[in-house]
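We were asked to recover a plausible sequence for a given structure. The inputs and outputs are reproduced exactly as logged, with field labels preserved.

PROBLEM: sequence recovery
POSITIONS: 317
GIVEN STRUCTURE:
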């Protein structure tokens, strides 16, 4: 796979006049790597791309040291998508789907949307910073007919910062998928800048602030997938095209990439929590397949003897 410049990153930028913070995600190689060992139909692979871009843009708005997870579950043919993103930029993910149901949608006369694929269900965001920190989770229903619509509903219900998100997706003639996300948030004012959120006592200021926000949203919505995912345009150029009249400042981009966290050591630790006779097959061996990367971990009799050998001083189980 050829690396595409300006992709597989998250770019943060500031719209100075509106006091709005923006985040831009574009993925290419990462999506290919996420799907490489899975036989996903095009419809499923495209939704994985959108979910990965949404995960990255949401995670980039948080300060955390650990893992951000986005899990989508529904009663449609595409029943589950799970994307993990570490604070180091490493991403992994997989999906579960009913092949016959997805094929029926692919053969339909009209292009199926996300609502038909996922059906009714929910979207959950989880931040896990380790055993010593409390986990944070937010849950919202799958509404609005799209993943972006569900995210909008979450921000509306949780009364967080005013937020607008658009997702982008494109499939090349060779089947390669590019995906992206563009998010803006109206930030609270701490330095007297216009765009403040604490102006309820000043109707004129509040109206001007609302007009500024609506203008920023309208500009975001004017962006097309063709333009946003064009390899000819850098992330900084995209931000400048949208908001150059309002003063835009780009910060250092952060790289994103696919990497699974599974390992033989982690699998062994999991096996030890089960009695040996409950997990072996008829040949006396154990095969564990990672859902994320499809890597096989096979343990034969001697390997299992080593795993289940009592430590010195322990009673045999």
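RECOVERED SEQUENCE:
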């Amino acid at each position: 796979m050829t690396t595409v410049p300006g992709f597989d990153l998250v770019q943060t930028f500031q719209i100075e006049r509106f006091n709005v913070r923006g985040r831009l995600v574009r993925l290419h190689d990462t999506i290919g790597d996420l799907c490489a060992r899975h036989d996903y139909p095009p419809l499923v692979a495209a939704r994985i791309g959108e979910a990965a871009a949404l995960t990255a843009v949401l995670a980039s708005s948080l300060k955390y040291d650990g893992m951000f997870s986005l899990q989508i579950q529904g009663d449609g043919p595409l029943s589950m998508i799970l994307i993990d993103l570490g604070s180091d930029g490493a991403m992994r993910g997989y999906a579960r789907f009913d092949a016959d149901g997805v094929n029926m949608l692919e053969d339909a006369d009209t292009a199926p949307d996300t609502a038909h694929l996922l059906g009714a269900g929910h979207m959950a965001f989880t931040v896990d910073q380790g055993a010593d920190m409390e986990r944070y989770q937010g849950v919202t229903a799958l509404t609005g007919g799209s993943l972006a619509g569900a995210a909008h509903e979450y921000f509306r219900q949780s009364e967080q910062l005013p937020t607008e998100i658009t997702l982008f997706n494109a499939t090349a003639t060779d089947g390669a998928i590019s995906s992206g996300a563009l998010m803006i948030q109206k930030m609270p004012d701490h330095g007297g800048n216009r765009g403040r959120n604490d102006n309820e006592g000043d109707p004129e200021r509040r109206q001007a602030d609302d007009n500024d926000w609506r203008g920023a949203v309208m500009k975001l919505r004017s962006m097309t997938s063709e333009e946003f995912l064009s390899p000819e345009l850098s992330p900084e150029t995209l931000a400048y095209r949208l908001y150059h009249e309002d003063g835009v400042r780009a910060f250092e981009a952060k790289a994103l990439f696919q990497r699974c966290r599974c390992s033989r050591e982690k699998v062994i630790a999991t096996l030890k929590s089960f009695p040996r006779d409950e997990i072996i097959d008829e040949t006396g061996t154990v095969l564990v397949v990672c859902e994320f990367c499809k890597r096989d971990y096979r343990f034969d009799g001697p390997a299992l003897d080593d795993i289940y050998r009592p430590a010195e001083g322990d009673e045999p189980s």
